[in-house]
């Protein structure tokens, strides 16, 4: 069976490089297993090298895949790793999105002239987009934990609790159930505040008759979950219920459109056209979804201008929303795995509008 690094070698050669420096820590973790906060890797057909600093020598010995040579620890990772280059003449790829201009200049200065630097974009990210069964299992476990935390929090009611209090309690329950951290700071946004897709929780109490948007995720074994539910705090008016039903219908159809071979932009279009047909196209200002894995936002994107084509092993969110400025917001988000036969929804929570006092 080929390793992740073997698969990267195929991609980097196809992109015109002979070897590649991987500096992004999430990518280093994905390729080597190392979870510390300072490291770099060099990968090519005949080289697998890993460098970190003195603080992480023991951790690296435990975590880094045995196929990698661990070079002597150094304060200067670029210097340490480039000393292991297999040949004085090659095309060395680097991650254009993750190497600073300054690091690039230093690299150029250090390397012999005959080493050509080749800028590469998103190769490891492309591998990360397709989850192995054990990665999908980790995301499923994070999702189950996040679901359980949410159920506990809303069982204590909404009305009279502040957004901030609900967000902190949700975070606390995720930690208490075993998540070392959350995927991101939970969003709890009630009433008109729900019209801001990235609202920050306020010291404002939820009142009766409001819709409340809650967006949260747990991180477990490095993998993230991501979910949104919109709840009714007590009885809401007919307009709120109507918008909720529209978003729910668009969400269900969006999920149904997910399949291996489907164009990501077409999946987005299925949900977007439903919302647009009810006159709310301009109130749905973000993409339908995104990949989730070691990071909470990763490839593939489900969006109007995405070139991605879904394949088995992709794990994506489906999260349409309608945001009416000054009035309300509704977003419903599930986490979905693309399978050979279709799709599987990881999120276990109901999507019927829950009325909670
Ligand atoms: Zn979310
Ligand atoms: Zn999301």
Structure description:
- There is one protein chain.
- The chain has 357 residues and is an alpha+beta fold.
- It folds into two domains: 127 residues, Creatinase/prolidase N-terminal domain (Creatine Amidinohydrolase, Chain A, domain 1, 3-Layer(aba) Sandwich), CATH 3.40.350.10; 224 residues, Alpha-Beta Complex (Creatine Amidinohydrolase).
- The chain is built from ten helices and 20 strands.
- The longest helix is centred in the middle third of the chain and has 22 residues.
- It binds zinc ion (ZN) (2 copies).
- The site of one zinc ion (ZN) has 4 residues, from loops.
Key phrases:
Creatine Amidinohydrolase; 357 residues; six-stranded mixed beta sheet; alpha+beta; Creatine Amidinohydrolase, Chain A, domain 1; binds zinc ion; four-stranded mixed beta sheet; 10 helices
Topology:
Layout: H1 4-14, E1 19-22, H2 25-32, E2 39-44, E3 47-52, H3 57-63, E4 69-70, H4 77-82, E5 91-95, H5 101-110, E6 116-120, H6 123-128, H7 133-154, H8 163-176, E7 181-182, E8 187-190, E9 210-216, E10 218-220, E11 223-224, E12 227-233, H9 238-256, H10 264-277, E13 289-291, E14 298-302, E15 315-318, E16 321-324, E17 328-331, E18 334-338, E19 343-345, E20 355-356
Parallel strand pairs: 1-5, 3-4, 5-6, 12-20
Antiparallel strand pairs: 1-2, 2-3, 7-10, 8-9, 9-12, 10-11, 13-14, 15-18, 16-17, 18-19
Helix pairs in contact: 7-8, 9-10
The structure holds zinc ion (2 copies).
């Amino acid at each position: 069976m080929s390793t992740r690094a073997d698969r990267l070698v195929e991609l980097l050669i196809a992109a015109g490089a002979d070897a590649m420096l991987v500096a992004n820590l999430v990518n280093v973790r994905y390729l080597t297993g190392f979870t510390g906060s300072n490291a770099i890797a060099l990968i090519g057909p005949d080289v697998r090298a890993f460098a970190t600093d003195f603080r992480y020598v023991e951790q690296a010995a435990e975590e880094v895949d045995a196929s990698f040579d661990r070079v002597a620890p150094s304060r200067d990772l670029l210097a340490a790793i480039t000393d292991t280059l297999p040949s004085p003449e090659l095309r060395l790829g680097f991650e254009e999105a993750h190497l600073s201009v300054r690091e690039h200049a230093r690299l150029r200065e250090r390397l012999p002239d005959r080493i050509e630097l080749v800028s590469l974009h998103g190769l490891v990210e492309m591998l990360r987009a397709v989850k192995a069964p054990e990665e999908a299992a980790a995301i499923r476990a994070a999702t189950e934990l996040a679901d359980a935390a949410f159920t506990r929090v809303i069982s204590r009611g909404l009305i009279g609790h502040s957004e901030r209090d609900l967000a902190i309690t949700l975070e606390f329950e995720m930690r208490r159930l075993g998540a070392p951290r959350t995927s991101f700071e939970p969003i709890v946004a009630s009433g008109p505040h729900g019209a801001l897709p990235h609202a920050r929780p306020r010291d404002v109490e939820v009142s009766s008759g409001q819709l409340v948007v809650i967006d949260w995720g747990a991180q477990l074994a490095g993998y993230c979950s991501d979910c949104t539910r919109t709840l009714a705090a007590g009885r809401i008016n007919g307009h709120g219920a109507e918008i909720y039903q529209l978003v729910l219908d668009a969400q269900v159809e969006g999920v149904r459109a997910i399949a291996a071979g489907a164009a990501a932009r077409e999946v987005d279009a299925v949900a977007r056209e439903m919302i647009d047909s009810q006159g709310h196209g301009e109130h749905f200002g973000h993409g339908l979804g995104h990949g989730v894995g070691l990071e909470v936002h990763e490839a593939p994107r489900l969006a109007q201008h995405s070139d991605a084509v879904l394949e088995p092993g992709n794990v994506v969110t489906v999260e349409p929303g309608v945001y009416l400025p000054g009035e309300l917001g509704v977003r419903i988000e599930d986490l979905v795995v693309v399978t050979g036969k279709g799709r599987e929804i990881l999120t276990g929570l109901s999507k019927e509008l829950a009325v909670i006092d």
